[in-house]
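Thread amino acids onto this structure.
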């Protein structure tokens, strides 16, 4: 009887100690006496969930239960040396060198393996894209406009292929914990209806994750500023500190709400296109209401002058916390919304020739 009791107690102890948890064994060459941190992003902040000091290049972490597989970073001390991987309740091994920590090999995580497979499937396209970017930079710096145009078209084509590959992954892997990160990344270039459709195709377990819940909230907000909706009003101050309401600018035949920033290179490259349309069509009823996501007033004001932006500019100098940007679900710039004279949104994210063609269509050619 005693033997049975002891056996029974042993089973209880074993079952308690066998509760799912994560275990990490690191072997990072050149990392003696370095403190490694496991960190993740949560509610916009970096949170440390574990740490360990390496001894002769090795360290170990053994933590509690991971609620679901998620992307985290292994960070070496107070440096920028780090590597990202998917952690889950398993025995995970990380091997690499401190000097090239981002290349560390991670094994033992099923979700990490899925992510690697996805990256490898995308590699031929990403490698080709990287090579073309180098050629584009050379052509641009040498002023070879003809070659620049050819390379831009090739880069755009590859981007379309990469986006298609990513969307196919989301659609064919509705139960994968890799899918939320890919879908969130894709959502920056997608309209509300397409995001909602892809979210609805996810497994219920994945759809309940925080990333997807936030995406659902974003979709709801995006619908309030979709084409056909009345543009929500807001008030921000101009460079002289005077409050200006969007509603005070509505009444022009066309009004472009232009989200940009002095620090945003794509925005600065797009500004000449907006200036061109403004110059050609302002007398016919086209106006612009610039909203800057800058933090420093000096940089903002200088960019307005340098780029010759003659229209009204406002900002709260709150960077990505800009109140108007949040109201309009803007999470990448440049971004814009074209309004008619009643304040209804009739176009979104019209850049370059697309903006010129749309305004020409609505106001008529100046030729």
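Threaded sequence (367 positions):
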């Amino acid at each position: 009887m005693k033997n049975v009791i002891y056996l029974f107690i042993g089973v209880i102890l074993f079952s308690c100690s066998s509760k799912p948890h994560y275990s990490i064994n690191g072997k990072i060459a050149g990392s003696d006496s370095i403190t490694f941190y496991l960190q993740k992003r949560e509610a916009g902040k970096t949170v440390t969930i574990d740490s360990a000091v390496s001894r002769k290049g090795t360290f170990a972490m053994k933590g509690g239960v991971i609620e679901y597989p998620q992307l985290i970073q292994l960070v070496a001390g107070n440096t920028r040396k780090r590597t990202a991987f998917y952690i889950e309740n398993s025995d995970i091994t990380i091997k690499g060198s401190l000097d090239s920590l981002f290349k560390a090999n991670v094994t033992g995580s099923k979700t990490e393996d899925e992510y690697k497979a996805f990256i490898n499937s995308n590699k031929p396209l990403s490698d080709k894209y990287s090579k073309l970017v180098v050629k584009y930079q050379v052509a641009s710096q040498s002023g070879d406009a003809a070659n620049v145009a050819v390379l831009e078209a090739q880069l755009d084509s590859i981007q379309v292929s990469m986006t298609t590959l990513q969307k196919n992954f989301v659609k064919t892997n509705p139960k994968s914990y890799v899918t939320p990160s890919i879908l969130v990344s894709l959502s920056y270039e997608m309209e509300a209806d397409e995001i909602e459709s892809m979210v609805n195709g996810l497994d219920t377990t994945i759809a309940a994750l925080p990333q997807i819940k936030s995406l659902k909230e974003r979709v709801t907000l995006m619908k309030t500023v979709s084409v056909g909706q009345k543009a929500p009003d807001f008030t921000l101050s101009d460079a002289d500190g005077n409050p200006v309401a969007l509603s005070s600018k509505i009444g022009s035949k066309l009004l472009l709400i232009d989200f940009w920033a002095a620090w945003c290179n794509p925005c600065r490259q797009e500004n000449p296109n907006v200036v061109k349309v403004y110059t050609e069509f302002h007398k016919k009823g086209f106006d612009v209401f610039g909203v800057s996501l800058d933090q420093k007033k000096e940089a903002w004001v200088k960019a307005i002058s340098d780029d010759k932006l003659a229209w009204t500019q406002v900002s709260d100098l709150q960077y990505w916390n800009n109140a108007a940007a949040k109201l309009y679900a803007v999470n990448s710039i440049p971004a814009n919304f074209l309004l008619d004279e009643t304040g209804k949104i009739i176009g979104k994210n019209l850049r370059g020739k697309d903006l010129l063609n749309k305004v020409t269509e609505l106001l008529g050619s100046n030729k």
